[in-house]
Amino acid sequence: MLLAKFLQTIDNTFIGRIIDDKVNVLKSINPDRFYVENVRRFYNLPSSVAKVFCEMAVREGYFKKRFAVKCPNQECGRIIVSVDSPADVPDYIECDICEALERDEYCFSYDEVEIEPYYQISRERASSRKEASYVR
Ligand SMILES: [Zn+2]
Fold first, then answer.
1. How far is the CA of 95 from the centre of ligand 1 (A)?
2. Can you say how many angstroms the Cα of residue 86 is from the centroid of all Cα atoms in its chain?
């Protein structure tokens, strides 16, 4: 009875809302593509701290940093390609969708496209940890 009252109290206060928000953030996170904003919201951190957190996770091998190259056409905005480094973005890049839809512009230079960093959960790190637990 006391536990039920406790849980009801949590649910009715800001703590319940924080928990709900964390559940919603978790549900919306794609382990193959998430952003500093997802981490910021989950841990309720300032953006600068969340960014440092992500970069530390990359250095420790928990996250892999990648870069999404986005089509600059406003009505498109889709990710044309993902690369490991901005240096891997070709000088010119074509958006197949915009070309197929016969939009005036579908070939863009490096300077025209938006390059947005994102993170993935590192599979190598996850599998090496699993192997380590088998040894014990
Ligand atoms: Zn496009």
1. 5
2. 17
